[in-house]
Amino acid sequence: MPSVDGLVSGLDTASIIRQLISIEQRPVRLLQQKSAKIKNIQAAFTNMAARLNTLKADAQTLGKASTFDRKSVSSSNPTALTAVAGEGAPSGAFSFVVGQLATADQVVSKGFADAKTTAVGAGSFTIEIGDGHLDHKTPLSFLNAQKGVDHGKIKLTDRVGNVSIIDLSTAVTVQDVIDRINSNTTTNVTASVSGDSLKLTDNNAAPTQNLRVDEVGSNTTATDLGIKTSVAASTLTGSDVNNIAFTTSLDELNDRNGVRLGTGTDFTINIGGGPVNVDLGSAKTLADVRTAIQAAIPTMTVTISNSANALVLTDSGAGPITVTDVNGSAADLGINKAAAGAVLTGDPVIASLNTVLLKSLNGGSGVTTGAGTDFTITLSDGSGPIAVDLGSATTAQGAIDAILAAVTPTDANFVARVSDAGNSLYLKDSKGGTGNLTVTDVTGAAASLKISGAGSGAEKLGTDIDRQYIGRAVKFSRLNGGEGVFAGKMRITDRVGRAFTVDLSDNVATGNIAEAITDINGAASAASSDLTAAVNSTGDGLILTSPTGSGTLKVEEVDGGTTARDLGLLGSSTTSTLNGTFEITVTVGSTDTLEKVRDTINNLNKDVTASIVNDGSGTAPYRLNLISKKTGTAGRMLVHPGTTAFTFANTVKSRDAALLVGASDDASDPLLIVSSKNTIEDVVNDVDLSLLATGSATVTIGRDKGAVADEVNDFVVNFNSFMSFLKEQTSFDAEKLEAGVLLGQSAARTVENTLYRKLLTRIPELPSGLNRLQQAGIGTDDKGQMTFDRDKFLAKFDDDFTGLRKLFVHGADIQNNTDLSTLNDGAGVRLSSGADFRVTQRNGATFTVDLSQEKSILGVITAINNATGNTSVTASVQGDGTGLQLVDTSVGTGDLKVLSLGSSNAAADLGILKTVGNVSGSTSTTLEGAQLNFAGVFRQVSRQLDLYTRSGDGILTTSNEQFTQELEDIEGQIESLNERIAQEEERLTRKFVDLEVALGQSQNMATFLSQQLSALGAMRKS
Fold first, then answer.
1. Which pTM does this prediction carry?
2. How confident is the model over 457-485, as a mean pLDDT?
3. What does the alpha-carbon distance between residue 219 and residue 229 come to, in Å, rounded to a whole number?
4. In the chain, % of residues over pLDDT 70
């Protein structure tokens, strides 16, 4: 734009134009002031909405029944036990006794001079966490045909009259019983096991009376242990308490390897004619086995021999009986054999106390024995050879007993036992000779027991006998210390490069190893892969075999799961097999130090942690310390020194936590809870217990009224803050003539008035004693501030909890005579002129319901129950009075559904517009409708606040949208005015420019004329 300076006219044209334009800009300034005011109002509304959202959240909390269901929990002895209670926890006082804590196995090695520089010696040793021990600790719960043992005390009197009260109330295993008897210092009695019985030995030299065991109080502990008796001898051998019954689960047999079941025929039985096929189907117990056999052969009777812990097949004919296996189930049941007569007595299907079956050893292939001498033993002084006949031994302890019976006549102090590692045998003679204790095999039994060959001096430490604890019938839930297998997928690539995904998600919760094998082999076959899965030869995992190809056999997780790891298969192999054994082999190099061994173990990332401890001794203080990452007996470690120079000692033995639920006095019968962890869930519904130390504690659970009072206080504080804000924003200062930003805004006044009305009104449907907040200690003062009398509220909480919760949350319950117009906070039920909704039953049948003539809840219930075509659906008011419910008892597997018809909203307004899926195995399906009863104060307040703050159609939202539209209109007006003013300014500028030009031209003309006149004058003079 040209500059205007008035050089010709001498006028201040720029100033003149600014003044003229300023007059034109006055409407713009007015609009800008209006825009600023609106923006201030919007900011105030935004602040208001934020405060109301806070208030709404408080109201929603106080309008929920769950707020009142919060629990407070305390422990009388928090050093022993603490608890956390959820909303579903019952109120009351619960007594607990922590008998013992769950511990993790800890093993330390012999000492070394240093950890950093000295080589520990080449070789390899093994670590295994699982059930591979030979000295199995029989649970007390397994005794007496799995009926268990009463948890109490016994009175032990030795033969010189000393008396001990042995507390077995928290004993978990038979070994616990033995340890507690042997650790008492009052009576001179030693406890041990003898086959299927407990044995007590009195060690007094000069007995004067009987050795006896009595009950204490009303308990039956001694009886259940088979030792409630009195004997005039130094040895008391109890009755047989280790037996099975037809109720025994197949999962518990064969050292918990279970019984293999196939598809179709499991085994055949021949009683003289042709073979009869027996299909066990999905048998779960021995009773199911009996039913299957007797159904196949009506002339056969199946019984149990408790002395043999075996099944007995008896035919009404003369025999012989021959059972032939098909898939291993007959062998697992101990009946895969022949009998010359009409009675076939099977082999044991459970081991004796504190031991395992021989047939579980060597990965389940058992121990080879023969007729007569199985092996010989030559002692270190050359005595022998001593012939050992395992005879009828069926357990690891039976084999040990046979060795002791053969050798002790020659060496009375000979030792034969399970090794410290727990997975092998240990032999030692007391001859002190210069030779080696040597075991020479005859039938293969010594090799099977892994003790064949020469020992070291008078000692012979056997190698791992590989007790099977993962068989085809083993449930997934038993793996990984009882933590099971992740329900997911894994991807397998065979050595040819063919990859396929194995999905275990459908059966991992209830499945077993056999199903994993089936799934893997099935997926491989579908991918045209020759890979196969099976249980490995050591019975401690799965093994994958990929016989063709030269690539890498690989197993990977899918979707971030842990299925492959949980099955021990995660990883790769450059050979044709990938062994999922849970046994860790630690290879020690010739230059490896203790630190190197520690790091090697930790880098394997298995369930064991290695560290180095310094015991403070002078010459060899450094020891390798191994700790299982899993507590409880499920985390018990097997550490065998193998070919290394290590020796190991168990410094902390793993054990399960033992918790008594109930009083532990002699007149009570508490419940014993056994857990592999020190955190126990849901012993009491929705209560988690943390066990910290032995001792008793009472956990008291009640409603957390303090927490509810805190919520009320938060609402009151936030309400008063909001009202103070609102008062400031809607005020007018008469002296300063200043108005609040929201003064005159109807939305602000509406919010204020409505909130007070909702909070201070009474709910007429509730009893007059508690139908308004003031009666619960919540009121207002003369300044409009809300007040809260906490003591009055807490007193009302105790006196009338149900009434208080109704006041806050539920309002009044609906009844049969409740008018439909009062439902949904007075919004009522919207009906149509015809059928309102259709009900589809479980069996697929449907019927329609017409509510056009109904006025009450009873009318709705009657219309549904009497609808044409309704044969099995019953409508009623829910037990808690909050809404309707439909119960469908028709025979079918479909869903129970309610669908609206036409334009009717009746089903939605009645809260029954929904679909409920059928639960497998259930005989009925229940559809619970939404809450219909009158809303309590805070449910009403939260709903009202939602009307103000919700996006879309909330009052504050729509007000802000109106202001936004007004601002847009103002901006448009300002823009239009500015364009017009700019045009006017340009016009004025051009006018003044034209004026200056004209004046300049006039001035030039005057100068020219003056010059011409001057010239004429000069001419005249000349």
1. 0.74
2. 89
3. 15
4. 95
